[in-house]
């Protein structure tokens, strides 16, 4: 037997109890591990892809390093004469012919540079225009001559005090008898509109054709003079010109902010630039308190390089000295003689590929699991495997938990392998950054990716579509991250709120984190220090902290949204729940006696219109529901399923007012033509469809409200085989047996018995992949799945479809034995199968049950004819015809071969004794070899019922 009859009486009682949450989770986890182990091609791909990528990055890095190690990228050297006819090889910036060579040279004593102002360019200084009409600004006509002054704004709580400080800022005299540039800068305010350098090893203002400018309240005409400048071994003259300054009062800091915003290119509708030199808020500054807020232009910083250098020190020094002159002794000052870079050791020009192009490639590698997991979920959804598991007792809780943990475990192993391989080949994004930060970031993202996979799976119902769009998302998000999102990250003027909004896309949040790790690794590479540490999370511009917060919150939100949509929208989980199911069940529970009494009058109408056997069945159902103690495992009461009409068509009654009761030990057969409603009825009873009205009870549990509990008690053999092609027949039975709480030897014995009874044991057929089974073998496996364990109710939808006669006969005996402790509903098109297996039969036509009874009863009620068989000499065929026509003029010949003839005779025309008397008299005149009289076949009953329903214009 298939397991049930042997397990119910087992003294261990393992299967008498419902499997626990842990037992079901264990069963699913074992199944997933087996499936993963069998899918070796995908496993190899997942292992090799990170390995090959890391190896490729390692090889490319070697090639790049070998190119950058050539002399043109090393510090320039020259053999310098030392006086005795020989020369000594010396290396340094002064001997370097290119910028790349100079970059590689050691600088033990960096040069001192004047601390300059960052002056707005002549064409971008703040002026009055139609769209920028702030008080005090010069007219825009000065832009044509390049004579516009540089404007500074100021405010404070005490206007007179602020004005006094500004007066001390202004230097209106130009010093005489200049000795050198350094002495000049210490006395005046000197600036440039050249963009700053990346470092202070070289001040870009002195290596350009643009002049330096001294800031004065008023400039004399044609102000220009030259000062000597020495760069390395090269001496030159630097031109200095004059630019006038203007300090304008504003009422408060809000006014300053508004003016600065309107002067920004994207802050006004006409995209004009009105740049301010600086702005100050002196707040509550007085002789005892120096408190000032300072605005500066940060857009000079190259967005590709962050952090970078800006010319700010001189502005702060200027206002500090103004405070000392105004409130303290005029002789006190804070000198700012120069700025310089820290000494550095020699280095070679290098390009770190893992930090430069790593974010894009690593984003692709890490997201590669997303379409893999998505395909897995949608596959089980499309092929109805998830609802198949649910119908056999595996609830949503174990499925979600195990699938989540399983995906997270694979993701973690995959990520650890990737990080190990990257560290082994020397990828600095892994080596330089703190490993605990990397662990937290990757772990949070992997959880987010798994949750996102569950969310995406609710949208798709086709594996191919899900797979294609999954890979498009992976590669598309990576490319958009590298060529669009990264630009916004590096643009400090881009709205942070919009940036965070973009990071709501999981692919962008991953890219942001990888970008931050790569930038800190790049910085550590060039400075010889470590990459990102926990202290660095508080750095201005470091987006790792906000990324972790966004991913964590989104992870939780995605989980909740995934579960909700899975219950409400997804078609792979059976009947969809009400959108407000999370508010609790505020509807009244089913009150059976009320339901029955409210329908009693309508039932009387049914009795008047229905055949007597249907009426009796309906009354029996109502009696069962009224008598609480009388238990039937299957009770259907006035079940209806109506599909709304489309394109002007009328409504379709798939199942109409069906009432049925099936006791233990009975196999009830459903017959009917295609489209009669048999499969629709099975789908309602197994949770695939919600009834339009009426209900059914499985072991006293309502299919409308208690389907999750019902799944623990039923087995289902669906119309189409729902199996995993990469699992063996034995593994299928082991999985469903564990879900049914079979354990240990009891489980193994039940599986072996099932395989033997299904003819899948010999030749190790049960240990072969189910995907290689023939259609008949898959059908037998589906029957075995429905019968494994202690199921009280079994639904079989055409279980012997596609079986050869021997296998079909064997399976009949299996089902016949299995019904001992169960109630079984079976649909079939085989009259022979229904006659052999079913204790009672029901024929459905047009959604309605037209008759109910045993095979013998139906033949008696609806057969309507006898079949008379007579074997005689072929020469006497006409005499036999005359004999039969004499008995019944309505007799029809249905067979005639070699003297053997069969006739169908209406029962109303003849009596049995008349037939026998007529044949006995005929035998005296003609030789008859044999004769026989048989009642109508079940096929005749089926034909008569279907045709009778059609004659009454009932729906097909």
Question: Your description of this structure?
Answer:
It is a single chain. The protein is of the alpha/beta class and 956 residues long. Helix content is 45%, strand content 15%. Among the domains are: 72-105, no CATH class; 117-327, no CATH class; 362-577, no CATH class; 865-935, 2-Layer Sandwich (Alpha-Beta Plaits). The strands form 5 sheets. Strands 3, 4, 5, 6, 7, 8, 9 and 10 form an 8-stranded mixed β-sheet that branches. A 6-stranded mixed β-sheet has the order 16-17-18-13-19-20, sandwiched between helices. β17, α28 (805-818) and β18 form a beta-alpha-beta unit. It is elongated and about 155 Å long. It starts with a helix and ends in a 5-residue tail after the last helix.
List the helices and strands and how they pair.
Elements: H1 4-8, H2 21-38, H3 40-68, E1 77-81, E2 87-91, H4 99-104, E3 117-118, H5 142-145, E4 150-155, H6 159-169, H7 181-185, E5 190-192, E6 212-216, E7 224-231, E8 234-249, H8 253-262, E9 278-281, E10 293-295, H9 313-327, H10 353-356, H11 358-367, H12 369-382, H13 385-391, H14 396-424, H15 428-431, H16 435-457, H17 463-490, H18 496-502, H19 506-527, H20 544-568, H21 592-609, H22 612-626, E11 634-643, E12 652-662, E13 667-671, H23 678-685, E14 693-698, E15 701-702, H24 707-710, E16 714-717, H25 729-739, H26 744-757, H27 775-787, E17 793-797, H28 805-818, E18 823-827, H29 831-837, E19 840-845, E20 848-853, H30 855-862, E21 865-872, H31 877-887, E22 892-897, E23 900-906, H32 912-925, E24 928-935, H33 938-951
Parallel strand pairs: 3-5, 4-8, 4-9, 6-8, 13-18, 13-19, 16-17, 17-18
Antiparallel strand pairs: 1-2, 5-6, 7-8, 9-10, 11-12, 11-14, 14-15, 19-20, 21-23, 21-24, 22-23
Helix pairs in contact: 2-14, 2-25, 3-14, 6-9, 11-17, 11-19, 12-16, 12-17, 14-16, 16-19, 16-20, 17-19, 19-20, 21-22, 25-26, 30-33
